Amino acid sequence: MQAEQTPFLSTTMGADCIPSNPDISGIGVRTAIYAQNLLCFAPVIAHLWDGKISVDELKGIQDQSIGMLAVAFAILISTIIEARAKGGPMITSFHAAVILDLSWMNNTSMFIWLLLYAHHRSKADNLSAIPATWNGWLKALVSPLRHLAGIKNKMDSDALGRNGRVFKRLQGLLLQAPVLTIGSMHLSLMAAIGIWLWSDPAAFGTPISCDPSLSTVSLSIVGRAVRFSSPALRICSLLIYSLVLIPGINLVVPFLIFITLHILHNKSRRRHPGFWSGVEHPLRAIRSRISGTRMSDAESQNNSWLAGRGLPSPVLETRTGFLLVGLGCLAVINIIFVIDVELALARNKNPESQEDDEWGFGQVLALLLLVVPIRDFVSSIIEIRRKLLEHDNFEEERTHRFEDVLQNAIDTNHIDVAKFKALIESGASPDTPIQDHKFVTLFQLAAYLGEVDMVRFLADRVDINIAGETFQ
Q1: Do residues 397 and 265 share a domain?
Q2: What is the pLDDT at residue 288?
């Protein structure tokens, strides 16, 4: 059965088998983890509002992710302590499975950072931009290993000797992207607990009060019930956690998934530019309606002109499509985890104990974890408003500059073709009118002066019916 082969687990056991453990499955703990993982998408939306990810924005996401991973480590360490403690809090294989579900969720922010990193490294304005090809990314992934091995530094005369040089390179590699280092270690610790659990579920932590093989003990995978004693489920779980056990290596699979998405998206854009231009236009219109701003006439005309010729619009050069798909997939996976965990707890709720649903001191204290995500969420809203204001100011400044250049061209009877093309391609409307007694638009002036190149450039981009005194 397909559901038995899914590694994302939540559990369903007999109601009389599971003792309460509010430290693990308490409502406050769960709410805090759900909220902080879902709220971490808000800053990303704010950063992507202008289609760009700056170095500072990437660092902000990294800092946020590190903070969330620190909490994730605390949960896993608590699990180990409780599983080995005698006479302390009771943690069963049920609670361990819940923790593993929550731990998969706690990797969300790191995976978001990986997506943004791939986007940032592929930007055309990045000096070290990586082309959206397998060859380009293979070189980028192998480069740190070559540096660690000292292939590029054979003449290094470091007084520390070969071992010292390797240690320094390793230290530099680990500190270059600390979110990956910490995230990889978290995956490894999570995998170790997963292997520990599934190697012998009956021996993990405090034994449950009934025999799983004889009771209604089961797991809920994407909403479907799978018996806890299923050999296929146990083997599949051990296999999955074995794949993410080794630090560093455990990042290869998710990174390859994101890079594959990135490369396929860019390849599709090159092969079907007209389709992507058509898709982008309504999406930008929706975003403009939500933000309260409207698409400029120039942007609309330029995009239509390019789409009609099978060319992608300049806006599409930001290549954020794969990011939206990746973020959407991560959000859906998180929602599935939330539903599965809540279904598991509801189905296995012990009618004799209500501790998991009580808002005690520990549950309220757990909500303090939301302070940083809520702060980031509010900051993201403020950031979106700031970018919208900057966009409006930029539009106004660009229009004024176009008017000044056009007025100067009328006064001197000379058109700087390169300058006008640059302004129009940056989004300025070629139909921007000015108050002049002879000419109203750039197209009229270009036609009057016989600037054939300019006229051809403007022919499909302007409204030729706008009249001035010279063209009555």
Answers
A1: no
A2: 54
Judgement on whether residues 342 and 443 belong to the same structural domain of the protein: no
pTM: 0.67
Q: What is the pLDDT of residues 409-430, one digit of tens each?
A: 877 888 877 888 787 777 777 7
pLDDT, residue 10, reads: 46
Same-domain pairing of 133 and 41: yes
In whole angstroms, give the CA distance from residue 181 to residue 184. 5
pLDDT tens across 175-233, in order?
667 888 898 999 999 999 999 998 888 788 776 666 555 456 677 788 787 777 788 88
User: For 41-100, what is each residue's pLDDT tens digit?
Assistant: 877 877 776 666 777 777 878 888 888 888 888 889 988 888 887 655 568 888 888 889
336 and 435 housed in the same domain? no
| Count of domains observed in the chain | 2
